[in-house]
Design goal:
Layout: H1 3-24, H2 28-52, H3 57-79, H4 81-86, H5 91-116, H6 120-144
């Protein structure tokens, strides 16, 4: 077992397991935020596994998750907007997940970039890091209700 696989195991145990527990239990406000966090962490695990197993194809899975994870959260935020307006996520929960969504991608992606070296994989890693940071920040704001999702554009 190398350091990349150990890091992936730690992220799975310390991050993904509690996020999945939060996504499957409790109030709706916690489930939606935990789902957003779980997709972020699973994407980072895929990147760590790609380096640990020396399988560049896993980076493509991370890229797909980086695109679809925040998009899925935005869909949930749109469909559950009424329920989330009645019982919004707590400020501490959204601040913690937003801070993690901004801090975690660079903490994982930058060492992977150094280990990968120049090439297509480096560009993919940088794109994934940018997508994860921006996408999870935007979807976290949408879930917390800090941005309004336009209803008029789709109704009618």
């Amino acid at each position: 077992m190398n350091g990349w696989l150990l890091a992936a195991a730690v992220v799975l145990a310390v991050g993904v397991a509690p996020a999945l527990w939060g996504a499957t239990t409790g109030p709706l406000r916690r489930r939606v935020v935990s789902q957003n966090l779980a997709t972020l962490l699973v994407c980072l695990v895929m990147l760590l596994l790609a380096q640990g197993y020396a399988r560049p194809a896993y980076i493509d899975l991370g890229l797909v998750l980086a695109v679809l994870g925040p998009a899925g959260t935005l869909v949930y935020a749109r469909l559950l907007a009424d329920e989330l307006a009645i019982d919004p996520p707590t400020t501490q929960l959204t601040l913690a997940t937003t801070a993690l969504s901004v801090a975690a991608p660079p903490l994982v992606v930058l060492p992977l970039c150094v280990a990968t070296g120049p090439g297509r994989a480096l560009v993919k890693l940088l794109v994934i890091g940018a997508l994860l940071t921006a996408g999870n920040s935007i979807s976290g704001r949408a879930v917390s209700g800090k941005t309004s999702l336009p209803r008029e554009a789709h109704d009618g």
